[in-house]
Amino acid sequence: MDITAPGGCAVCGSGLPVNMQAHNPDSAESDREKGSAAITCLTVRHDCKDPHPLYEGRAATIPIVPDMLRELEQEVRKKRQFASDASHEMRTAIAGLRAELEEARLHPDQTDLHDLLPRALRGVDRLDAILTDLRVLGEMETGPAMEPQQVDLAELVRDEVSRRVDRLAVQLRLQPGVTVQAVPIRIARLLTNLLDNAQRHAQQMVEVRVSRAGDSAEMTVADDGEGMAESERERIFQRFTRLDAARRLDHKGTGLGLAIAREIAQAHMGTLHASESATGGACFVLRLPLAVPVPLASRRAQQMP
Questions:
Q1: Cys-Cys link to 34, which of 22, 38, 64, 109 (CB 3.0-4.6 A)?
Q2: Strand 216-223 vs strand 282-289: parallel, antiparallel, or unpaired?
Q3: What pLDDT sits at residue 3?
Q4: What is the Cα–Cα distance from 286 to 261, expressed in whole angstroms?
Q5: Alpha helical stretches, state H, the chain
Q6: What's the pTM value of the predicted model, to 2 decimals?
Q7: 6: which strand partners?
Q8: How confident is the model over 120-148, as pLDDT tens digits?
């Protein structure tokens, strides 16, 4: 089994990783005899310019336990599936746009530009939305770490909603002083994704609530739309998943918004799940640990130059 390996050469620190090759250092001994303590080895190879005799030319052997190997295999499968899904979604959007334009080129006399251009722009908007969401996911997984700070959820919700121009006015039920330790731009992105989803499905009402729930902060985003079947409430958080109602209501959706929202929640040691709202629509519930209060003397010391 070959697995793409991170990092540089263990000796010179340079060179690009070629692969990691898993092998058993003692094939004569059965797995039953080894039991759970069995050790697998990874031979990490890099394309260094100069060979290193200590590491057999360009390789270093690293012992790992089977659990680690299984995690690596699962991560590789996950990355490959995501790359395949992303490629499929982008090729689908490009194919639709190409079909529109080629039809217009073949039959220019029968083409209504006032009808064609908006459809073509919708295809461009969908591509732009996919690329934006992919960039957000990439920044979350490999980008530089962002420093969390104390955030008042009620203030953040009020600020974000005031910047939006929505089809329906958002009703706010905000308890002040519900503070969490978080990266504001990430929580704002989570809220944006949930509000976009609610505005897409709502008929007359979108509501955001912020309150304390025990030792957690709770934020809910609810709508009065069609709602979703209980069997679908977990699947919608998978990447590139779009239910029939979402496809019908918004052709520009990427199927990444809710997946990004959940990953942001988990990165903040929180949870995000879907349930039914009081009006029968969808309700998304975010729970985050409450921030530990900072003593007044400590806050003043932090503010001093």
A1: 38
A2: antiparallel
A3: 43
A4: 9
A5: 31-34, 66-106, 113-142, 153-163, 184-201, 244-249, 257-267, 296-303
A6: 0.60
A7: none
A8: 887 787 777 777 777 777 777 666 667 88
